[in-house]
Structures are given as C-alpha cells and as structure tokens.
Amino acid sequence: ELPNPDGRLRPGLTAQVSLNRSTEQSVLWVPSEAVIRTGRRALVMLAEDAGRYRPVEVQLGQDNDGKTAILKGLEEGQKVVTSGQFLLDSEASLKGVVASSLDVSPSTVTVGALHEADGQIVEINDKEVTLAHGPFKTLGMPGMTMTFPLATPALMKGLKTGDKVRIAVSQTDDGLRVERLERSGSQP
C-alpha cells in the first residue's frame, strides 16, 4: 500500500517502482547486459587469460538499476564480458563449447558421442546444411538456426528444403559436424 494524498495514483496507471531491501549479506552484481538468457538458463561469458572466453551458467537474483545479482556461478574478481557477449556465445555454440553448469558435471558429456536434436532444413547442398533446430540437450545448446558441415555428401540424399529431420552431430576440432540426418515424422 502506498500513500496517495494528491490522488495521482489511479487504477489502470502503470509506474516503475524500485524497491530497496537491506540485507546483511553481500551480493555480487554484474551489469545486466552481461547476462545471456537462453530461456532455460542464464549464462555470462567469463574473460580468461590470453584473450580466451568461457561461458558459465549462473543463478540470477534481483535486477536493480541496470545491474543483476549473481547468486551462484561466479566469484568476486572474475571478469565478465559486457559487450558483444552474444557473438562470443554464438561462436562457442558453433564450436561446441559447453557452459560449465551449476548442476551437471562436464564429465557427463562423453567425448566422441553423437548429440541429437530435431529440426527443419532451411537450405542444403552436398557440403553443408542450414537447420532451424531445437536444443541439443547433451551440449547444453539452445535451439537456433545455423549451418553445419556434412560428414559426407551422401547425407543429403533424398532430402530437401523444408524437410523435418532428426539430426546427430559430433564435436570436432573445427566445431560441430552432422554425422546423421534422417527425415522424421510423416512427410510427403
């Protein structure tokens, strides 16, 4: 309840409100633009030595005045990327980099394993395929549209733009590569 002596606040109006809460516990804050929200989780790009970057999953607290509280995932003194981090996250996805997770050990992802998702062909030729794909859960990679190299030209046989497919990719030194591409569901 708020005092309204002048009657300026009326039903149906909107307002921006900032609530301050005093707390004994110190809180780690990062600029809000440093946080990448994928829908299922929140990531920040951690700046490491020699110009390297690494995605790290974080647990978010409250937002206040352009800053976001980090409850888990970061420690004081670590440097996060505040500009262009989405480009770094996209490149990391292309190369199959997995964000260190709060609840999943990186050792649960088997090297050399195939990672599967469902998708739809946007464009295809004998060298690569552009897919609008769902999440690769074993990679911690959200759904998006991207281009993958094909392991062999034979994978495109019988497929065309618009086909719904089941995709299996492997991680290579050059990024993700399609190892299996099969039509899915009942299609003409």
Give a written overview of the molecule.
The chain has about 190 residues and is mainly beta. It folds into two domains: about 30-105, conserved putative lor/sdh protein from methanococcus maripaludis s2 fold (Beta Barrel), CATH 2.40.420.20; about 115-185, OB fold (Dihydrolipoamide Acetyltransferase, E2P) (Beta Barrel), CATH 2.40.50. Helices cover about 5% and strands about 40% of the residues. The chain is built from one helix and eleven strands. Strands 1, 2, 3, 4, 5 and 6 form a six-stranded antiparallel sheet that branches. It has a five-stranded antiparallel sheet with strand order 9-8-7-10-11.
How is the secondary structure organized here?
Layout: E1 28-31, E2 35-37, E3 42-47, E4 53-64, E5 67-72, E6 79-80, H1 85-95, E7 115-124, E8 128-133, E9 144-149, E10 164-172, E11 175-183
Q: What is the residue-averaged pLDDT?
A: 79
**Major sheet attributes:** 6 strands, antiparallel
Range of strand content: 35-45%
Residues in helix, %? under 10%
**Which geometry do the CA atoms define?**
elongated
What is the rounded Rg? Answer: 22 Å
CATH level 3 topology of the largest domain = conserved putative lor/sdh protein from methanococcus maripaludis s2 fold
Could you say how many structural domains there are in total? 2
Low-pLDDT sequence parts? 100-112
What is the β-strand count? 11
Q: Tell me the span between the first and last alpha carbons.
A: 61 Å
- Total number of helices: 1
- What order do the SSEs take from the amino end to the carboxyl end, as H and E? EEEEEEHEEEEE
Class by SSE composition: mainly beta
Could you say what the CATH architecture of the largest domain is? Beta Barrel
Q: What is the top-level CATH class of the largest domain?
A: Mainly Beta
